Amino acid sequence: MITLLTGENSFEVDRALKKIAADFDGQPERIDGSTLDIKQLPDLLMGATLFANKRLVIIKNLSENSSVWTEFSKWLPRISDDVTLVLVEPKPDKRTKTYKELQKAASVESFTVWGDRDSVQAEKWVSDEAKNLGFVLDKQLAQFLVARVGLDQWLLYQALEKLSVAESVNKEVIEDIVDANPTENVFYLFEAALRGETAKLVGMIKTLELTEDPYRLFGLLGGQAFQLAALAVAEKPSAEVAKDLGAHPFAMSKLAPHVKKLGREGVRKVVAAFAEADSGMKTSAGDPWLLIERALMKVAAL
């Protein structure tokens, strides 16, 4: 039996490998395919050893070894029935003969990394995983957790493990024990400006200066301003706008009241403040943090 695991979602690939290994009665053989010599293939693929009648052979990144990968298709018909072969290829070249032959001979499973349009799937996933870990995350808490952590499944699962040992789980507990990702920090920074909370704004900027790159942070802030503008002109519910943009619906729903408060003219002034800061970022040798603070203060004054 041959299984090909593809895709750059390393969490799901790792989970699939663990299940395959758990279902196998024996010790898996793990091989770095990038350094494999073609002379090793007979021993790996052609039957039992002195120590085991059935074997599980896991080869990672064989496609990085161009000389062996090119010849590997010739070995597929020769793989012993006593060998369960698992190939792990995050980004295989689908144009190669070996990949095309594997599509015919192997069970192919693809695991893609979640993107912005997968937030609903992520929310269902964290709810299901929480249940497996022995606690309950309702829809609202699942939305809040995904918005706070992002769509990286490793980070989401680590957050769930932390929450699983808490006596109870609510929004305050999540905020207390789960670190916010940079995008979440930016959202709260932008929201503080929209609320006119200037003292809080200055404190947050000072904290972010210690860890964040100003140009990256400004790019994320610009994205928030764009989403605010999209809500202002769309005249549709925030959930529909979020779907159109591939944005997180929870975050968009929190921007919606600010659009109503500011009106189109106010939103235009927000966009203008960021456009001015963007021009300064590109042409000035001044402090980028000062430009960010100046733009946010203009928003806070609206």
Description:
The chain is an alpha/beta fold and 302 residues long. It folds into three domains: 2-110, P-loop containing nucleotide triphosphate hydrolases (Rossmann fold, 3-Layer(aba) Sandwich); 116-177, Helicase, Ruva Protein, domain 3 (Orthogonal Bundle); 182-300, Zinc Finger, Delta Prime, domain 3 (Up-down Bundle). It is 60% helix and 9% strand. It has 14 helices and five strands. A five-stranded parallel β-sheet has the order 2-3-4-1-5, with helices on both faces. The longest helix is centred in the last third of the chain and has 35 residues, at 249-283. The radius of gyration is 25 Å and the shape is elongated. The mean pLDDT is 90.
> Major beta sheet, specifics?
5 strands, parallel
CATH architecture of the largest domain: Up-down Bundle
- Overall pLDDT, averaged? 90
Q: Any low-confidence stretches, pLDDT <50, length ≥5?
A: none
- How many distinct folded domains? 3
Helix vs. strand class = alpha/beta
Arrangement of strands in the largest sheet: 2-3-4-1-5
Provide the β-strand percentage band: 5-15%
The total of helices stands at: 14
Number of strands: 5
Rg (CA only)? 25 Å
Shape: elongated
CATH class bucket of the largest domain: Mainly Alpha
CATH topology of the largest domain: Zinc Finger, Delta Prime, domain 3
How far apart are the termini?
Answer: 65 Å
Q: SSE order, as H and E?
A: EHEHEHEHEHHHHHHHHHH
Helix content: 55-70%
